[in-house]
# Entry
Amino acid sequence: MTAPHWIAASAYAGYAQVRILGPVSVVDGDRVIGVDRPLERAVLVRLALAGGVPVPDRRLAADLWGDGQLSRPVERLRVVVSRLRAALGVHGAAVLRTPAGYRTTMVAGDLLAAESIADRLHAAARAGRHGEVRAAAEEALRLWRGPALADLQWAPYAAVEAARLDEWRLELTVTGLDAALRLDFGPEYLREMAILAGEHPMHEPLARLHALALYRVGRQVDALDRLRALRRDLATEFGAAPSPETVELEVCILRHDPTLHPVLAAGKFAGRAPSVHRISSKRDLVTFGHRFRHLQPGC
# Structure
């Protein structure tokens, strides 16, 4: 049995599905379905991410092999899909041929579950329920088993989608840290912030949260150094200046501004939170782009 694409994310556990937030796997409940060939896995994931919409043959071939001069792509796809159906066994009928191209009724269950959790996260954020925001961010992040599509990044489409999913994972992490700072949980998150800031030195919302957490524990000099390093890196790499939010935070730290206390400060200086635009929607996967909701500045 395979889940129709319109079933709510919470219902996917009882159906065969693809998992992409880590190395790709195909599962039916607790049983792993052995789709061992990377090319067959890549086809299934690409079709699952299309959300049930047929993918034209030449688009699918280009997403798998690139836009080069591929000999007989339609014939090659038929062979790959035939092997995929055989590997899926009783679920082989989930991969369908239509006049518009191949499609599948299988879903990327872990991605859709993460999107559903993110919807709750944003509803809680709009209502100012910071504890729920932090809990939802942590719940969503637990769905990742490693870098997304970790074993398929040789495929052109998968490399693009993996980068987008990794960015979204970081944004969810930053949102959870922002909520923690709003709740005055900063000190125990300092180590995590320091590690993330080292890995993403030019991520401004993360840098601001790290600086704010440092300031809160009495490390004003370190907080200012963090923002100055950000300024230097932006100038060196992009010839760009920091955003107004970053400049404002720096000024507030220098002035020991009282608005840097927990309830008011975190939301001002995080700068942005992720807004999920479903990768499994009916938009073409290749043209998909995440959209981010910008918070209003103010000191």
Notes: The mean pLDDT is 84. The CA atoms of residues 30 and 268 lie 43 Å apart. The chain has two domains: 9-104, 109-294.
